[in-house]
Sequence to fold (592 residues):
Amino acid sequence: MDSQKKALRLTNYFVSLPSARQTVLLILIISMLYGLLSSFLLRPEPDFYLALNSIGSGIFALAVPAFISSLAIFLAQRKLLFRRVLFLSFVGMAMYAIFYLVGIWLSHSDVALSSNAIIVGYGLVFIVWFVTSKFLFNLRRASFIFATLQLLFFATFFIAANSIGVGPDPLDTVVRFYFASLVFLVGVYAIFYFINAPMKRNLGISGVEAIALFFSQWFYGGQGLEDTFEEIGEEAELAVGAMSFTGKSTSTIFLVPYVHFGPFGNLGGSEFSSKLSSAFESQYNNAFVFHGAVTHDFNPVSSDEFAPLLAAAQKAASQLHPAPARASIDVTRQGSWKVQNFSINDSLFSSVSRAPQTTEDLDYGITLALKEKAERNHSLALIIDEHNAETGDINTVGPGSPLASELLDAMGASLQKKTTQQPLLAGFASGGTSIAKSLGKNGIRVACFLLGKKLHAYLLYDANGITPDFRDEIIAAVKRVGQSMGYSTLPEVFTTDTHQINTVRGVLNPMGRGDRKIITAITLQLFAAAQKNIEPVKFAAASERFRMKVFGGKQSVEIVSTLNSIVAFLKVAAPIVLLAATAIILWALTKF
Fold:
């Protein structure tokens, strides 16, 4: 688990950028501040007019070429967001300002060293532009051109400002700038080699290409990364279960695909929960898609793999022949586990959770063992991971782990209970799409099951988990509303663990970090609607197996370990390469 945690920490560096207006303000502030500091370094005595003139020179030397670079690149590549290009110009401009100030400070003691420091700075900024354009902006061929252009713009205005002497010949100065950039470029390609080597050897794919495609998906929704996944994926035989509830005014289906809804964004199976639900909307009033108890090993390698899943789900649905339903719901707590068994006729809908403690998915081998236990007394059992306590920790339940043994014991204890089944009354409601950033396209689904005097509420969210405190908050709110309606209400929260929303920062985006009021309000509205729709229902269940290409257990582990190895190596190699390139530049500048 430590290797997974190390890999996940890398996503903490993904941050949201300021708006274009804020970046423009930052560019102006930094350029004016540079002007004032350069004035002070050149002449420490206070001089109002000199300071005022220096502020203008700072804007001319830094802000103007920053704006020109941003505008030129944006006009050439309209697919780019202007605020991203502008922010890159700001970063480059800030680096130029630092090296200009270092050059001014060194000019009092060593003019040659002062000039060389500025030349090294130009080379480093060139590399920042090149790497950012190549990977973050996905400009494969144009990255070199844009890095070259911005250097030319800044060099022109820097030389025209004439605040620091870097040589009598402007053309010779620009050549030196480009020479430094070329040396650093060679160093960067050496780093690319270090990235590519382990990926090529272990997975047979280009690490540099994979990184570029990752950012292409993040920024533009590109799905080119799926071609890479196809190369490393492996075929698996999985299953999808279907349960239908049919009344006079309702027709609802529960779907439990043993597929993980990842890896992120619109790649692989990340959108399968909403796509599967949408595919059944014409046939059913409501389609609930639950998180089948599997791990990230069962992330589909591409969105095209939806076809075999849909075909299997439709085949299972075609076998549903509703019959009068009697049911019982029992909750068993043993160790850290809670097992909730919803027994309908001779079928079982069994959901598991460790809330408020976290789990990060169940290994499919454990799921099959649970299923085998349950189907000794049931014709069909579906095992669902409620995935309703996201704390940021990673505790995958694997074969032989203490958590797995504890869960198997809890399931065994739950199956020993013999509760008399009662006539099943149910009501359903769905909605809440596009109300919160932490919700996927499938929104919120609420199912109410009335058994005697007890009202059980299944609250399903198309989300990447939920924080334990928000889960408790929602359950308490639903209980209060149910009590006001005259029911002894027993709610439970489920999430699909969709990775559709994992596109901005990090890979853990549970509900509860924002938008709590609107999510709770919609949940209560849907709960009231579902309760109002309660009626006697008929029930049917079926399942179907299918084959799909997924990441696979070995590949998932290999990807994580390779990524950690690359990062650990780059922490040492990158600084050494950059220092070596700097030394080569400084040595070469003394020779011509």
In short: Residues 19 and 454 are 52 Å apart (CA to CA). The longest strand covers residues 234-246.
